[in-house]
Design a protein that fits this description.
The complex is a heterodimer.
Chain A: H1 8-25, H2 31-55, E1 64-72, E2 77-83, H3 88-104, H4 112-131, H5 135-144, H6 146-156, H7 161-194, H8 201-210, H9 220-235, H10 244-251, H11 254-279, H12 281-307, H13 312-331, H14 336-367, H15 378-381, H16 383-397, H17 404-420, H18 429-453, H19 470-488, H20 491-509, E3 523-525, E4 531-533, E5 536-539, H21 549-557
Antiparallel strand pairs in A: 1-2, 3-4, 4-5
Chain B: H1 2-7, H2 10-35, H3 37-67, E1 74-84, E2 89-97, H4 98-121, H5 128-147, H6 151-169, H7 176-215, H8 225-230, H9 232-238, H10 241-258, H11 267-270, H12 276-285, H13 290-297, H14 299-302, H15 306-328, H16 333-353, H17 357-384, H18 402-416, H19 422-435, H20 441-470, H21 492-500, E3 510-511, E4 517-518, H22 520-529, H23 549-572, H24 575-579, H25 593-598, H26 605-613, H27 616-636, H28 652-659, H29 664-710, H30 716-741
Antiparallel strand pairs in B: 1-2, 3-4
Helix pairs in contact in B: 2-3, 2-5, 3-4, 3-5, 4-5, 4-12, 4-17, 4-23, 5-6, 6-7, 7-10, 10-13, 10-15, 12-17, 13-17, 15-16, 15-20, 15-28, 16-17, 16-19, 16-20, 17-18, 17-19, 17-23, 18-20, 18-23, 19-20, 19-23, 20-27, 29-30
């Protein structure tokens, strides 16, 4: 590929870094200036990402606005970024949530300068994760994003912050080591097949699509699949690798929790969608039942443990385990509606859980407690806060009409369809168990709401609380816009995703040689969802079932 | 099309209550603050009633238009695309047909009456506008439920009304028992929704299979009724009956949750914690009948599965019987009505189960009239009796509240099956349909005799309620000494006693040492709610007063509907014929009875009566009425029987047992949900802490110890990282070796 030079994506990636550099010039005691500067920078980044969104086209599954700058080409490492339907909304979510959490962070009153520095560095790292197309670049962003978050927990966290930060860092770092090794083996394998040593995702996928990559490699595909998947599964996090999350969430400062739940967890599901599915098609098909079962255990287990918590933040953290279980469940159902649902649900989990953590943060700034036993009767004291909390809580419950519903519904339908059709060795019992997750979600969230807001005021401290200020209502209001928008008109978000999701699905399920390739512009997903190559039908969409070799032979005989 | 243009007005039917909701929620506080309490209440009350009343007027016009249409009386209107993907498309579309418009008329008609009633009932409440916020939202959600043209839209409304119900049950959140009742309602409903969701998935699967067989994927509106109905044949051919039965039963599980059928009825009695207008509108007239609506809507699918029909029938019979038995043991006037509602809902499902879907909807309609009347009447009684709900404190109220008494007596006669009142007709149709059920004769027999027995019981417990409240000699509240209320702290033992009985009596009745019954939790709550109003308690000095016009006008209208509604829907306009374009009705016509009515428009009064007198069914239900009422009058006519309310007496243990819902509620709420659920939760938490996280921490500690061997100077991060890096490398080496040994590679 010809070098393109830096473009819009790089500019957006650079904005927070520039902000961070400017921040360095401010004296540490100029707390107002630091806060305003960060807010403005993250605000500008958000607006810039809107401009990116405006340029984005929903008509193709290929990467758009690709930027390629040769770097260490002999080592296969080049700077390459681009965006497609799977990453575009995560990119937007990142800029939005960072902006909103830096507004909230006006509450921070201790060592502001490094704090806001961390937020800005974190933003670049996260945006880098969602746009990198070279695996080493991706890996660097992926790991770099850990550091500011771990530091945020370590310095600005709660009582047990030391333990939480170290656990968070080591756990997620350790898991991704395996991915790094897997990458090296992948590059080597690519060299063996094509003669080029590279970490370029598009190049790898092209070789996978043609079938040459995994020819005569035995169990290698399976091993590498797990080495990648493990990193992402820990990140999601999925049962049984979730225990770092409650600790990290409980101890993290509010902005950290919002970003952690809103964006960092999505790196896991994004990684599964972006790398695992297209690169390891056979391994995915063979192992999807294991992952689906783990996801369903996570859905039920996370919900039950959430119900037993006596700390608001811990409860929401465990609810994330359950909700992210739904996302993975949808993605690994490997049918169209399921992957769409999973990919959509991860955005809405970011919005809902982000908003929940924001609200809990607003409360914590007033009460300095997160224990249910200290609360009760808050509705009388803070009616506006209660109303906003109610809506966000219901969105997390998955109430139809709010943003939690469409994705969850589609993901569950996807899982149901795969099991119903008997694909991938899944039994029909699986969706029946997964469905109970929606019952449990109501149990723990309603209990939480009752314990915090209803009943008589028993704690005199509650009796002194003031309701939300105007700017705080406005801040939550931004989340609410997306809560309603995502629930009432999900098409805004679904449409740009659809072709990329469809392509990824066909990369995973179609037989070798019939798979779409990111580097071959002659492939496209047409209006009906079928894969075509220059008007020639390559493979029909088969939304709910797997296209078999027999189907394709019959199709060829019919001269399609 | 000109007609379609008119039918666009249907959006206004939805938008008006939605608009009302926005006005109440956003402007309520401002208006109340700026105009003052008195005028503010009039303005906001008016703004709450008007949208619903206007929606009713529009709906009437549309129904008239629809009645004038020839051929297929169905209009589908699409507002926008809601969820659109290549594999599933769900537009926001409304279906105007005879079934949905019938429901719309019930919702907006009775809804506006109840809104009017509530403007007075809730007048003393400081959260006046919050109440109407929820109530208007409820109407909007309910309209989406019945008007949506696909199951996903139905589901929006379905869960939407659930949330409104949750908010209104917990409206007086100061008492945490109320919010627990609200939680229970929502969670039990979610169990139903779980079934409904899975049922929807199965329908999508069936439709996808039909699509694969040639329908194609161009327009995957697979949850839309018109698409499902058009492919019923395809479904029938593509799937074995077991799958179709499973689908129907899953949908029915949803109906069981929302319509409080056994074993999911548990939430409805607790839901009485909400304000009485809510009980009338949501927990009697509209929301709880959604399940019957769903079965009517999907009648084409249910027709394919006789097994599902049997399940529905038997569930209905069991629910009807259980509800009626429990109603005998209640002393709270609203609880009697709640269990009566459970029982009557069972009746409706009996009708649907035996294939007479339209009869189910007929009973929905008549029940909406008389049960809304009874609930509003009980609200008026409660209002007149200082918010005391214990019937044992009532008596001889006909003397004081004449309009309320008269209307409630009509309601009582209507539900008890007095000939030619509305309840009589729908009950008669249900009995007839059960009798004519031939798919599985024993089920029909069980349904018929069960329904007849429940008819006797209904007449009896409703008579008990009426006698204890309005007749039966003594004015028992006068026996409560005026000073009784200050004695709360003396009643510690009674509190304990109540706790031991579990919490199914949301507000445990506290027996005064003088032997009187008033619920002091209730009293305390009223006092907390209206701190600035002058408030006097129910005691010997109390004189019940008639309610204001906003409350008795709805009573009078509903009383008229309870008298004439049944006959009107049979003779004046045939509900069966009207519904025949949207619901399966033709199936059981060979039995003749239903069809006869439709052709009887021209019949004279004489011939109608003759027909009834020749029909053995008429005499059977008349006997049921007479026996039930006779028993009630005999036992309760003279006053409170000795063992009714006291703790002695031969039948008392049985009666108490019935009052405690036969122990079922305790078993489920305390036993299964709290004890067993709590145990599972604790086990899982323990697992999480000691096993899942324990392993992690131990690995970490181990790594740290190994790290110490390598270097004593490195700090935490790096140390752990180094070790794990090494472990990782080791793992990969093992993996590569494994690969080599397994004979892969080049």
């Amino acid at each position: 590929m010809e070098p393109t030079g830096f473009g819009m994506i790089s500019a957006i990636l650079a904005l927070p870094i520039i902000g961070a550099l400017l921040l360095l010039f401010l004296p540490p005691d100029n707390s107002k200036g630091i806060k305003w500067l960060t807010t403005i920078v993250t605000g500008v980044t958000f607006v810039a990402s809107l401009a990116l969104l405006k340029q984005f086209s929903s008509d193709t599954f290929h990467f758009q606005m690709v930027e390629f700058v040769p770097w260490m080409s002999s080592l296969g490492i080049d700077y390459k970024v681009g965006i497609d339907g799977i990453s575009i909304w995560l990119f937007m979510l990142t800029t939005l949530l960072t902006f909103l959490s830096s507004i909230f962070s006006f509450y921070v009153g201790k060592r502001e300068k490094p704090y806001f520095l961390m937020i800005l560095l974190l933003e670049t790292a996260m945006l880098g994760v969602f746009t990198s197309l070279n695996l080493i670049v991706f890996y660097s962003f992926f790991e770099v994003s850990l550091i500011p978050m771990a530091i945020m927990i370590y310095i600005w966290g709660g009582k047990n912050r030391n333990y939480a930060a170290v656990k968070f860092f080591i756990y997620t770092f350790a898991a991704s080591i395996f991915m790094l090794l897997g990458m090296i083996v992948m590059a080597k394998q690519h060299q063996q097949v094509t003669g080029v040593f590279t970490f370029d995702l598009i190049a790898w996928q092209s070789a996978v699509a043609s079938g040459s990559f995994w020819q005569n490699t035995g169990n290698l595909q399976m091993i590498l699949f797990w080495s990648f998947a493990l990193a992402f599964i820990v990140k999601c996090p999925m049962f049984p690798f979730h225990t770092w999350l409650p600790d990290a969430h409980t101890e993290a400062p509010t902005a950290g929790s919002i970003i952690l739940a809103g964006v960092l967890l999505k790196m896991g599901t994004y990684g599964l969608l972006r790398f695992c599915l297209p690169l390891f098609p056979e391994a995915v098909q063979a192992n999807t039942n294991i992952i689906m079962i783990l996801a369903v255990i996570g859905i039920v287990y996370g919900a039950i443990v959430a119900a037993m918590q006596d700390d608001v933040k811990k409860l929401v953290a465990y609810s994330s385990v359950a909700h992210m279980g739904f996302v993975v469940y949808g993605i690994f159902s490997l049918n169209h509606v399921g992957i769409m649902g999973g990919a959509y649900q991860q955005l809405n989990h970011g919005i809902s859980t982000g908003a929940l953590f924001l609200l809990i943060g607003l409360l914590y700034e007033r009460t300095h407690t997160r224990a249910f036993s200290d609360m009760g009767g808050l509705k009388k004291q803070m009616p506006n806060f209660a109303a906003l909390f109610l809506i966000v809580m219901l969105s997390s419950v998955g109430l139809p009409g709010l943003n939690g519903f469409p994705g969850e519904f589609m993901a569950m339908l996807g899982g149901f369809a795969s099991a119903f059709n008997g694909s991938f060795g899944l039994g029909l019992w699986l969706p029946f168990i997964a469905g109970t997750g929606v019952i449990f979600a109501a149990v723990y969230l309603l209990w939480m709401f009752q314990k915090v807001f209803y009943g008589p005021v028993t704690n005199p401290m509650i009796g002194r609380l003031k309701d939300l200020k105007k700017w705080e209502i406005a801040l939550v209001g931004v989340f609410l816009i997306f809560v309603f928008w995502g629930g009432l008109y999900p098409n805004t978000f679904l449409k740009p995703m659809e072709k990329s999701v469809n392509a990824v699905r066909q990369m995973t399920l179609n037989p070798a040689g019939r798979r779409p390739a990111w580097d071959d512009q002659s492939y496209e997903i047409d209006e009906a969802g079928d894969l075509v190559q220059q008007e020639r039908l390559v493979s029909p969409a088969n939304f709910y079932s797997v296209t078999t070799q027999d189907d394709l032979m019959r199709m060829d005989q019919e001269g399609l | 099309m000109e007609g379609e243009l008119t039918f666009r007005m249907i959006w206004w039917v939805l938008l008006l209550p939605l608009f009302g909701f926005l006005v109440q929620s956003l402007l309520g506080k401002i208006v109340m603050d700026s105009l003052g309490k008195r005028i503010g209440r009039i303005v906001m009350g008016g703004l709450a009633v008007a949208p619903v009343a206007m929606a009713f007027v529009i709906a009437l016009g549309l129904t008239k238009q629809l009645a004038g249409m020839h051929g297929d009386q169905t209009v589908i209107l699409t507002l926008f695309e809601w969820i659109t993907t290549k594999s599933l498309s769900i537009p926001f579309e409304f279906r105007v047909d005879t079934l949905s418009m019938t429901m719309v008329l019930i919702i907006t008609g009775i809804g506006s009456l109840i809104h009017l009633y509530a403007t007075a009932y809730m007048a003393e409440d400081k959260d006046y506008t919050r109440f109407f916020t929820y109530l208007n939202l409820f109407v909007a959600a309910m309209l989406i439920l019945v008007l949506g043209n696909n199951l996903a839209l139905l589901f929006i409304g379905w869960e939407g009304v659930g949330v409104c119900s949750y908010l209104l049950i917990g409206f007086w959140y100061h008492d945490v028992e109320n919010s627990k009742a609200a939680n229970k309602a929502f969670i039990v409903n979610r169990i139903g929704d779980y079934g409904l969701t899975l049922g929807m998935f199965l329908i999508v699967m069936m439709m996808a299979a039909v699509a694969g067989n040639g329908m194609g994927f161009e327009d995957p509106r697979w949850l839309s009724y018109d698409v499902i109905f058009a492919n019923i044949e395809g479904i029938k051919n593509a799937f074995p009956p077991a799958i179709i039965t499973l689908t129907c039963i899953l949908l029915f599980v949803g109906a069981m949750g929302k319509s409080a059928q056994f074993p999911l009825y548990l939430w409805l009695p607790d839901a009485m914690a909400g304000p009485t207008p809510v009980s009338a509108l949501i927990h009697a007239a509209t929301m709880v009948t959604s399940g019957v609506f769903l079965l009517n809507r999907m009648s084409w699918l249910f027709e394919l599965s006789p097994v599902a029909g049997m399940v529905v029938t038997l569930t209905g019979v069991i629910t009807a019987a259980v509800g009626a038995i429990i109603a005998f043991g209640q002393t709270d006037i609203k609880k009697v009505l709640a269990f009566s509602t459970v029982s009557q809902l069972g009746y409706m499902f009996v009708a649907c189960g035996v294939g007479a879907y339209w009869v189910g909807l007929f009973h929905v309609t008549t029940h909406a009239f008389f049960k809304a009347l009874l609930f509003l009447g009980s609200g008026a009684v409660i209002y007149a009796m200082q918010h005391n709900q214990d019937m044992r404190n009532y008596g001889n109220l006909t003397k004081y509240i004449k309009i309320t008494s008269a209307t409630m007596i009509i309601g009582w006669l209507a539900i008890a099956g007095f000939p030619f009142l509305s309840g009589f007709f729908s009950k008669e149709e249900i009995l007839h349909a059960a009798q004519a059920y031939h798919v599985e004769p024993w089920v029909g027999q069980v349904a018929f005799w069960g329904a007849l027995a429940v008819a006797v019981m209904t007449a009896a417990y409703m008579t008990r309620m009426t006698m204890m409240t309005f007749f039966s000699g003594g004015e028992r509240w006068k026996l409560i000494p005026a000073h009784a209320h200050g004695h709360d702290h003396h009643h510690g033992d009674h509190h304990d006693h109540d706790l031991a009985h579990g919490h199914d009596h949301g507000h445990g009745d506290h027996e005064d040492e003088h032997g009187f019954f008033y619920s002091d939790a209730e009293m305390a709550e009223i006092a907390a709610r209206t701190p600035h109003e002058h408030h006097h308690d129910l005691d010997e000095t109390h004189t019940p007063k008639e309610v204001p016009w906003m409350m008795w006008v709805p009573l009078a209208v509903l009383a008229l509907a309870s008298i004439f509604g049944g006959a009107g829907l049979v003779y004046w306009t045939s509900l069966e014929g009207w519904l025949s374009s949207s619901v399966v009705v033709a199936h059981h016509e060979e039995a003749g009875h239903g069809a006869e009515h439709a052709t009887e428009h021209a019949a004279t009064l004489g011939s109608i009566l003759t027909e009834f007198f020749q029909n053995p069914l008429f005499w059977m239900s008349l006997t049921a009425f007479a026996v039930g009422v006779g028993y009630g009058v005999w036992r309760y006519g003279k006053g409170l029987p000795e063992n009714d309310g006291m703790d002695t007496g031969k039948w008392n243990p049985l009666r108490t047992w019935a009052g405690r819902q036969l122990g079922y509620d305790e078993l489920m709420s305390d036993g299964v949900a709290l004890k067993f659920g709590g145990m599972v939760g604790r086990v899982f938490s323990w697992l999480d802490k000691t096993i899942v996280d324990g392993i992690v921490n131990n690995v970490g500690a181990l790594a740290q110890r190994i790290g110490d061997l390598f270097s004593k100077t490195q700090t935490g991060f790096v140390r752990g990282y180094t070790v794990l890096m090494q472990l990782g490398v080791a793992a990969v080496v093992i993996a590569i070796l494994y690969k080599a040994l397994m004979g892969g590679g080049q």
